[in-house]
Amino acid sequence: MFYLTYQHDFGPKHHIGIRHTLAKSKADLDANIYYRYGDFNKGMLELNLVMLDWASNIIEGLVDDSRSKYYSDRYDVTHYYRTFPRLFTFKIVSSKSKRLHIELLGGLQTYSKKEVERHIDTLNFVDQEWAHYAGGLLEYTGNYFTTGLTYQRTFSKLKRAPAPNSNFDLKYGNWEILNSIGYYATTNIFHPLRLEQWVWYEYNIDRMQGEKVPGDLSPLGFKRIPFHYNEKRVKLKSRILLDPKNSGLKMGLEFHADYIYPQGEKASNGIRNYDFRNVYPIVRNRNDRLTYTVGYRFNQKVYLLVGFSYDLDKDKQSGIGLPRITGTPTWFDGGFGRFTISW
């Protein structure tokens, strides 16, 4: 996917433009109208109105009236928007020439209503959705260090119900909330050696409700465990990086950690939310690894980097919170190669 953009400038600071996506799916096109005052480096305010999926009904209607739906798996399911979603966003950025830098952003996706038709049966349903997000950054840059605070929040909600005259019986609702605050500090006082430390604290909620949700798959058979999951989470990233400005050898050592604390009542064995975790054993209490990187910087804009990770927890921990090994312990946690050109 990429954007096509036209912008008209009213003097050096006022800009009005239109932006449009091009995507593989013709039914998934977004049109954006925006106003921007200033620019990202000197400080700006940007307001956006995005018409999401504006061509969807046209494309889906053409498919529905053609024979394509009988021959293409892509069009076994079509949909029709009764109420289109709209996305309103804003972004405020302070000047980057000051030591103190602030960024604020947010978005609201309005209520949408979509009827989904399955042509292979009569299990048609109606989806209603809402969403919003918000974020903030407060950063201070000194002569030899940079430090800052971040905040992120996302919210989404879905309600699914049978369409009129439908045999669909999987009525349910889902809502997810993510709240995250973070702190970071970096320094290049020992140049070309750079030190970085990042910490995030999260509180997440994920809930499903309805007549049939995954909890009905409980291995207990007679006992239904609803999908109501709350967690607190701490993420860490520590990095030591040898990174010359112009050219030379690049090397780094990183420590990544993700510690999860499920919430809820404690069972008799002392494990919180044990009934839920016994049905959904995907939850792990920890995931930590060391990542080694080595590469070469050809100049300020071009470098090559490769790396691999050593798994410190070795995937030994059971998702139900008990010290039980599941599967074969591993030490290799992935590798990568990266060739970067910037301009």
Task: Estimate the mean pLDDT confidence.
Answer: 87
What's the number of structural domains? 1
Share of helix, binned: under 10%
- Structure annotation, total helices: 3
| Terminal CA distance | 21 Å
Q: Spell the H/E element sequence.
A: EEEEHHEEEEEEEEEHEEE
Strand content: over 45%
Tell the overall outline. Answer: globular
Characterize the main sheet: 16 strands, antiparallel
Outline the structure in words.
This protein is mainly beta and 343 residues long. The protein has one domain. The protein has helices at residues 56-64, 68-71, 274-279; strands at 2-10, 14-22, 31-39, 43-51, 77-83, 86-93, 100-118, 125-141, 145-162, 172-190, 193-210, 228-242, 248-262, 286-299, 302-311, 332-341. The protein has a 16-stranded antiparallel β-sheet that branches. 5% of the residues are buried.
Summarize the structure.
This protein is mostly beta strands. The protein has 3 helices and 16 strands. The chain has one domain.
Summary tags:
343 residues, mainly beta, 16-stranded antiparallel β-sheet, 16 strands, 6% helix, globular
